Amino acid sequence: xxxxxxxxxxxxxSDTVEAVVRAQLSRALGGKRGxxxxxxxxxxxxxxFLSTRELRLALSVSIxxxxxxxxxxLVQRSNVQFVVNSLxxxxxxxxxAWRSARGGGDASDQALAYFLPGILYNSAYAVxxxxxxxxxxxxxxxxxxxxxxxxxxxxADRQIVRLCSNLSWFLAVPCVIRVxxxxxxxxxxxxxxxxxxxxxxxxGIAKIALGWPLQLAALGGMVWLLARDHTPVNPQxxxxxxx
Length: 243
Hints:
The chain is mainly alpha-helical. It has helices spanning 17-29, 31-52, 55-76, 81-102, 107-134, 139-148, 158-191, 196-209, 212-228. The chain has one domain.
C-alpha cells in the first residue's frame, strides 16, 4: 500500500508494523497507571464479596475506590477510560450476582454468578480473535491498518498478515487459559460436583492470578515477537524475512 502522509492518528516515524503496534498497545493499556486503575477496584470487589458474602458492602467499597480514582483523573484532566472500564466490569458482575439473589440463590450461588460474565467475555473474545485470524483479518492487523491510514490494503502483504496473526494469538491465549481454568470449576460448583464455597475460592484466586499477571506475560511475548523483525508498514519497502 502506498504510505499516506502522516495524520494525527499515525505517529510520525512509525515506519514499521512493530512500531505502530507498540504505540497502540501503550495507548490501549494506559501504562502502569491504567493497569492499576483497571485492576484494583475489581480485586477489591472480589476479595470483599468472597470474604463477607455481602454484595452491597463489596459494591460500596469497590465503587468508592474506583470513584476516588475517577475524581483524581478528572481533577488532572486525564483519560478516565480505565477507571470507567473497571466500574463497568464490577457493575456487570454485580448484576449477575443480583439476578442470582432474586432467583433465590444463596451467598455461594451469588458469588458463582459474579464470575460468569468474565467467563463468557473471555470465551467470546477468544472465539472472535480465532475467527479473525482464520479469516485473515487478525484484530491486530485491523488496528495497524487504521493507524496506517488504510484499513484494508495491509492484507495484501503476507508478512504483515502473518505478524499480526501471531500477535493476535498472543491476545487470545490469556482468554483461553482463563476459560480452561475457570469454566470447569464454575460448572462443578453450580452442579454440586464440587463444594460451592471451595469453587468460589478457587474462582476468586484464579480471577486475580489470571488477570493482569497473565496479560502482562502475553504482552511480554508480543514485545519479544515485535523485537525480532522490522516489517515495513509500506509493503513496497523491502520487508525483512520473518522467522
